[in-house]
Design goal:
Radius of gyration: 15 Å
Number of helices: 3
Shape: globular
Order of helices and strands: HEHEH
Distance between the termini: 39 Å
Number of strands: 2
Strand order of the largest sheet: 1-2
C-alpha cells in the first residue's frame, strides 16, 4: 500500500466505502463558499495529496454527513449514519461548510447540542 493511499488508523468500512465512491477526492461542490473553478466545480483535493495553501502538508479526507445541515451533529451521531449519507470532505471545505451551516441555523455554534447529547 502506498503512503498516498494509506487510510487513517481508525478507518471503518463506512470510511472506505465513502472514499471509494468519491474516488478519494473531496466531494464539495461549492457548499464551502468556494466555487472550485480550478477543479471543474468540485474541490480538487485528494486523500494523501498535498495541500498547497495554509502551510501545505498531506490532505486527509474526512467522511462526514453529506448534508451540510447535519455537519453540526455530535460525532457519535454522525458516526452512526449509513455510508450513503456521508461524503468525503477535505478539512478546509468541511470547516467552512460547517460554519456556514451553523450561521444559517441562526448563529448556533456547530456542535453546541453535543453538550446535552453525551453520556458523561
Amino acid at each position: 500500500m502506498t503512503p498516498r493511499a494509506r487510510p487513517p488508523l481508525a478507518a471503518t468500512p463506512a470510511w472506505r466505502a465513502v472514499m471509494h465512491t468519491a474516488g478519494h477526492r473531496c466531494q464539495c461542490t461549492g457548499q464551502c463558499g468556494d466555487p472550485h473553478t480550478r477543479g471543474g466545480g468540485r474541490c480538487d483535493r485528494e486523500h494523501g495529496g498535498h495541500s498547497h495553501r495554509h502551510g501545505g502538508g498531506r490532505v486527509r479526507l474526512l467522511a462526514a454527513p453529506a448534508d451540510p445541515a447535519l455537519l453540526g451533529l455530535p460525532a457519535h451521531r454522525a458516526a452512526a449514519l449509513p455510508a450513503g449519507e456521508l461524503a468525503a470532505w477535505c478539512p478546509t471545505c468541511h470547516d467552512h461548510t460547517r460554519k456556514t451551516a451553523a450561521a444559517v441555523r441562526g448563529g448556533e455554534a456547530a456542535g453546541t447540542g453535543a453538550v446535552t447529547d453525551v453520556l458523561f
